[in-house]
């Protein structure tokens, strides 16, 4: 009889708790959340405005209807989705204290963050290959990097990352939860799964293996691409040719640097949690969904002549 009562209580308890979670942003510094919302909201509007402008310019300007700019458009779309998935909820918590998030919404957010983050990494890898072909095999570039190549690359980017990251939220959603307070601003897998009463070893192991496999393989291929590019560039003897070749890759390299640096700092702070205040990884997690999306279109806009001209034409039309 005691066993039956225990199971009934456990069933009722888990049913009530998993209906929604509570997001507690910066548990130790809640008094200054309103001040933090100011720079975050400015970065959010900058990211949304800059990426939207870039998409419009590429769409309207016929000279930008090329594979490289199609890939840049894909990157902007990924950034917009990531921002909209994370930041509005964070600002709603800061401004209106709207901490509850439904069970389904939490795991949907987790899925989008995991899949779109790896899609962005994969897009950088395809863009690195585009630059490799452009510089190392310029005569073959028009026949290799075509519109059809971009379509196939986009399908590969979406299929690979959606299929391989989908088990992460599925595994988390199958757990029984004893606590509903998430000490984070967003539904990351580790923040949520550690609230479970069940063993989360499989969940942690799968995320670790898939995360490092996807992001690690992309980074290795990016480094290889730029190694070959650098090797070819150093052999170029024409006056100004080296500077011109490096300039075509400069914007792309800066974007990868932003993306990788923020991600690397986030990983290091999570590994050194005992020495670093718990609010630091939370803030870095939010910034990782804001800084690269805000800077990506700006860097390309500043360093790419064709995009600058397209923006100028758009402003004249307005």
Automatic annotation (TrEMBL):
Keywords: G-protein coupled receptor, Membrane, Olfaction, Receptor, Sensory transduction, Transducer, Transmembrane, Transmembrane helix. Residues 50-300 form the G-protein coupled receptors family 1 profile domain. It is found in: Membrane. Its main location: membrane. The keyword Transport does not apply. It is a multi-pass membrane protein. One of its GO terms (molecular function) is G protein-coupled receptor activity. The chain crosses the membrane at residues 12-30, 42-62, 69-95, 101-128, 149-170, 209-233, 245-268, 280-302. GO terms for biological process: cellular response to lipid. One of its GO terms (cellular component) is plasma membrane. PROSITE patterns: G_PROTEIN_RECEP_F1_2 (PS50262). This is G-protein coupled receptors family 1 profile domain-containing protein.
């Amino acid at each position: 009889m005691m066993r039956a009562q225990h199971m009934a209580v456990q069933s009722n308890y888990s049913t009530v708790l998993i209906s929604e979670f509570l997001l507690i942003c910066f548990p130790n510094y809640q008094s200054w959340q309103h001040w933090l919302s100011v720079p975050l909201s400015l970065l959010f509007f900058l990211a949304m405005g800059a990426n939207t402008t870039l998409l419009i310019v590429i769409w309207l300007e016929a000279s930008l209807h090329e594979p490289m700019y199609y890939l840049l458009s894909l990157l902007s779309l990924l950034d917009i989705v990531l921002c909209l998935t994370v930041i509005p909820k964070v600002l709603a918590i800061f401004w209106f204290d709207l901490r509850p998030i439904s069970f389904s919404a939490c795991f949907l957010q987790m899925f989008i963050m995991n899949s779109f983050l790896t899609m962005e990494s994969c897009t950088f890898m395809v863009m690195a290959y585009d630059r490799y072909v452009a510089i190392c095999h310029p005569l073959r570039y028009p026949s290799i990097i075509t519109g059809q190549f971009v379509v196939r690359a986009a399908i590969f980017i979406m299929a690979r990352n959606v299929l391989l990251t989908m088990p992460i939220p599925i595994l988390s959603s199958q757990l029984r939860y004893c606590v509903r307070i998430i000490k984070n601003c967003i539904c990351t897998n580790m923040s949520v799964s550690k609230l479970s009463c069940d063993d989360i070893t499989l969940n942690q192991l799968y995320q670790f293996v898939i995360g490092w496999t996807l992001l690690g393989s992309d980074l290795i291929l990016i480094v290889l691409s730029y190694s070959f590019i650098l090797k070819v560039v150093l052999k170029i003897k024409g006056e100004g040719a080296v500077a011109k070749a490096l300039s075509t890759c400069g914007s792309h390299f800066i974007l990868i640097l932003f993306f990788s640096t923020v991600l690397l700092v986030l990983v290091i702070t999570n590994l050194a949690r005992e020495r670093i205040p718990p609010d630091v990884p939370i803030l870095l997690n939010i910034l990782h969904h804001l800084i690269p999306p805000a800077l990506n279109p700006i860097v390309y806009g500043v360093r790419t002549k064709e995009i600058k001209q397209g923006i100028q034409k758009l402003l004249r039309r307005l």
